[in-house]
Amino acid sequence: QFRKKRLRFGRSRIHEWGLFAMEPIAADEMVIEYVGQNIRQVVADMREKRYAQEGIGSSYLFRVDHDTIIDATKCGNLARFINHCCTPNCYAKVITIEAQKKIVIYSKQPIGVNEEITYDYKFPIEDTKIPCLCRTESCRGTLN
């Protein structure tokens, strides 16, 4: 159990929209659960293609494990607006509650009011690179 953090989404300097703290958050606190539909890889592949055909520029697919992906594209919560950063202030952790795997975002360090919530997406390395826009000193240059 945890008290729900006061968060807001707004324009981000990193990428389009982001999620921001509306209250101070201490280190090692649960910030928000990543909520969406649990789907299999086959369904995720089909949806990714369909989203592209529909002109949906951003899909919000988050891998839980080998078999399960959470799709927050059309039925997610504010967690889907959290941007990638190479030096993030949060991290994602898979936890199991009543035999159900969930993705929860935890703070790595204290986060101030109006500070953007970020985590490292840890995308697998692929030939087609996705540019990183975090602009931090230790930016890797790509998300993958």
From TrEMBL:
The Post-SET domain, residue ranges: 128-144
Family annotation (Gene3D superfamilies): SET domain
Keywords assigned by UniProt, alphabetized: Chromatin regulator, Methyltransferase, Nucleus, RNA-binding, S-adenosyl-L-methionine, Transferase
Domain of life assignment: Eukaryota
Localisation per UniProt entry: Nucleus
Gene Ontology CC entries for this record: Set1C/COMPASS complex
Pfam families named among the record's database cross-references: SET
Domain (SET) ranges: 5-122
GO BP terms: methylation
Entry's Gene Ontology molecular function annotations: histone H3K4 methyltransferase activity; RNA binding
Protein name: SET1A methyltransferase
Species the sequence originates in: Nesospiza acunhae
Gene name of the encoded protein: Setd1a
